[in-house]
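Slide 14.
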Amino acid sequence: MTLDIIYAMFSWSGANSGMGDNKIEIMFKVGKKAVYPAHGVVQVKAIESKEIYGTKKDYYILEVIDSDVTVMVPIDNAESVGLRHVISKSQITRIYKILKNTSKVERPNGHQSWNKRYREYSDKLKSGDIFQVAHVLKDINLLQNAKDLSFGEKRIMDSALSLLVKEISIAKNLKEASVTKEIDKILTTSD
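Slide 15: predicted structure.
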């Protein structure tokens, strides 16, 4: 049985498990794309067994798209670190609704100091939840209409936009420039 078959199951004896055989679910096929929190879209380059600190485990070897960064994630820990599938086309509608909605927030986090907003937004980006990323972009977009953004807030806004654009472009099979135009249009018409 090969390790790169989607949803394949295999057994391994964990050195520290004390439970004998553990079943590990392979959720991502080699060559497919996934999303790793704060890094965005990654491609599964390989699935490899490695021994680290005396414990042998199987790892996803992930390459961050448009970057030289490679990440190793233990397969049995993938879900807990937030590794997930790229969103479906139907979920894009929900993202666009979040970006369009301005009725719930009068002054989005404008009462907080910029560094507290920065930490809050950073945590949402690191969560890996694409809907939280959409909320961050929407909130900062609304905030910039009310005041000048700090350098950190501008960086967070750029990161949120980049994460959304990359994932939506893969889900819709469109060029990033096209998705950027869609999002810009939504944000400018919802002001």
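Speaker note: The helical segments are 89-100, 114-126, 130-146, 151-172, 176-189.
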